[in-house]
Specification:
The protein has three helices and 18 strands. Strand 9 and strand 10 form a beta hairpin. Strands 2, 4, 5, 7, 9 and 10 form a six-stranded mixed β-sheet that branches. It has 289 residues and is an alpha+beta fold. Helix content is 16%, strand content 50%.
C-alpha cells in the first residue's frame, strides 16, 4: 500500500514540473539554405508578345549570402525522364539581375521578362531559374542551390496527342498486387498531364485504383509502372490498364491474368500431403489384410 502511495505522489510531482522547452528537446536547424518560390510557374503568351513576372528568393541561413542567378533550358531523357539542363537556345528570357546579396532571413523578389518573337511556332518551351550560393560550415565549403521551373506555352495550334509505345502486365501473380507498365510517347507540341490507373474484372476482384498523375513532354517516351490490388480468390481475371490525357484522349490495354495466392498454394500442398498419407496408410492396411 505504501509503495502504491509513493508512486502516486511521484507521478503528481512529475506532472507539476514545468515542461522542458521544445528547443531543448528538438532544436530546429538554423541553416536551411535557400528558399525559392514558387517552385513552378506556368506562362502562356502569344507570338510577338512579352511578359514581366517574378519569383522570390529567401536566405534561411545564419550568415549573409551572395547569390548568383542564372537561367537554363531543360528537357528530359527518354524512359526515365531525368532532367537535362543546357544553355538557352534563345534570348527570350532575361533576368533583371545576375547577383544579389541577402542578409540572414531576408527575401527578395527577382523580376524576369519573357519576350516571344513574332511568327514563333506554337508549343512548349521549358526553363529553370537557378539561385546558388557558396556557404561555409565547420570549416567545410559547399554550394547550396534552389530552382524554379518555368513552363512557357506559345499559344496557337496546340496538339495533345500520344501513342502507346509499349504495354505489359504481369500474367501470373502470387503476391498482393498485379504489376503493369506503360510507355507512352507525347506526339504533340506541348506538355500535358495523364492519369494512369488499372482494374481487375472477375470473381472477388477489387475496385479500380485511384488515378496517378504523370506529366508527358513533347517527343519523349516515358516508362510508367503501376499496380492493381490482387483479388481475394484464385482464378483467371481480366485486367484493364491505361491512361487518360488532359485533352480527353484515352488509351487502354487489356489482358488476362492468372492469380494464385500463397494460401491457396499452401492449401494445395496440405491437401496433397493428406491424400498421400491417406492412400499410403490404406495401401499398408490392404497389404496387411
Amino acid at each position: 500500500m505504501k509503495r502504491v502511495l509513493f508512486l502516486t505522489l511521484l507521478g503528481l510531482v512529475i506532472l507539476l514540473i514545468p515542461g522542458i522547452p521544445a528547443q531543448a528537446a528538438t532544436s530546429a536547424p538554423k541553416d536551411k539554405g535557400l528558399l525559392i518560390t514558387p517552385l513552378r510557374q506556368y506562362i502562356n503568351l502569344n507570338a510577338g508578345s512579352q511578359k514581366a513576372t517574378s519569383f522570390t528568393i529567401a536566405n534561411l541561413t545564419s550568415a549573409p549570402l551572395t547569390i548568383n542567378l542564372s537561367a537554363k533550358q531543360f528537357s528530359v531523357t527518354d524512359y526515365t525522364y531525368d532532367y537535362r539542363f543546357a544553355e538557352p537556345q534563345t534570348d527570350w528570357l532575361k533576368l533583371s539581375s545576375g547577383q544579389i546579396t541577402l542578409q540572414p532571413n531576408q527575401s527578395h523578389d527577382i523580376t524576369y521578362t519573357i519576350a516571344i518573337p513574332a511568327h514563333t511556332a506554337p508549343g512548349g518551351q521549358y526553363y529553370t531559374l537557378f539561385a546558388s550560393a557558396n556557404v561555409s560550415s565547420g570549416g567545410l565549403k559547399s554550394t547550396v542551390q534552389a530552382a524554379t521551373l518555368v513552363y512557357l506555352t506559345v499559344n496557337g495550334s496546340l496538339t495533345r496527342t500520344s501513342q502507346l509505345h509499349q504495354a505489359h502486365v504481369q500474367h501470373l501473380s502470387f503476391g498482393k498486387q498485379i504489376n503493369y507498365s506503360l510507355e507512352p510517347i507525347n506526339t504533340g507540341n506541348i506538355y500535358y498531364f495523364i492519369y494512369v490507373n488499372g482494374q481487375l474484372h472477375g470473381l472477388s476482384a477489387k475496385g479500380a485504383t485511384n488515378p496517378v498523375t504523370h506529366i508527358l513532354y513533347p517527343n519523349k517516351v516515358r516508362r510508367l509502372n503501376g499496380a492493381i490490388p490482387a483479388p481475394i480468390l484464385p482464378g483467371i481475371y481480366h485486367a484493364t490498364f491505361g491512361y487518360k490525357a488532359d485533352g480527353g484522349q484515352s488509351i487502354t490495354r487489356s489482358s488476362y491474368v492468372i492469380f494464385i495466392p500463397p494460401w491457396f498454394i499452401a492449401l494445395l500442398l496440405a491437401t496433397t500431403l493428406l491424400l498421400a498419407k491417406y492412400f499410403s496408410k490404406r495401401k499398408r492396411t490392404s497389404k496387411t489384410s
